[in-house]
Amino acid sequence: MKPSLAESIKMNVWVGHDATLAALAETRFGDHIGAENLIYVTISTGVGGGIIANSEMVTGASGGAGEVGHIAIRTGSYKCNVGCDGCFEGNASGPAIARIARDRWTGRGPLADLAEGNPEKVTSRMVFDAADEGDLVAQEIVDLTIENVSIGLGSLMNVFNPEAIVIGGGVVQGLQRHWQQLQQTVIERSLPGYSGKIPLTATRLGDDVSLLGAAQLAFRESCRL
Q1: What CATH number is attached to the domain comprising 179?
Q2: Percent of the chain clearing pLDDT 90 (strictly above)
Q3: Rg of the Cα trace of the chain?
Q4: 191: nearest Cα among 217, 164, 158, 146
Q5: Residue 10's pLDDT is what?
Q6: pTM for the full model?
């Protein structure tokens, strides 16, 4: 596809995974400009990741590196859409949070009110909002979500020793309300060397983070020609 596209538009073409491009953008435009080792994790309708190591994008043998959403964090629990048992995506993405809420549905309280009495209308945002309003079941799900996210992020910290992990995506809006708890739980899941400070931040680049990364990739690679 890449050669065909380059031929049709008569221009050089470079291809990158969206989350990997997001990670690249964070090293150029985000809170960690100049970082040589950084991981970007998006937690939204799914969970994906991008890895920058020694200033280069980690792409793997066939371009599939960075599928951090399929790290096993809770074996024997929920599966993702492709069937990975107990993976990050299956237990901490937006749809996963909503599914847990439906399975624990009581039909009363703030969560039921937000969903208009219909468990099929529950969203992850509703779960975070209901927890803020004192819904005990929603609070339990938020705590579980923080634990699940922390297991995934702690594993990445331990394996890659990045200068920073940046998280983005719709679920992060809810997690930011519990940032101190999230950071502390990641520390508990990481090696002792991270006990003083955890390099965890939320992206400030918004929905265009991957586009910014694509622009940076094209600029960087064209300069190498």
Answers
A1: 3.30.420.40
A2: 74
A3: 19
A4: 158
A5: 63
A6: 0.90
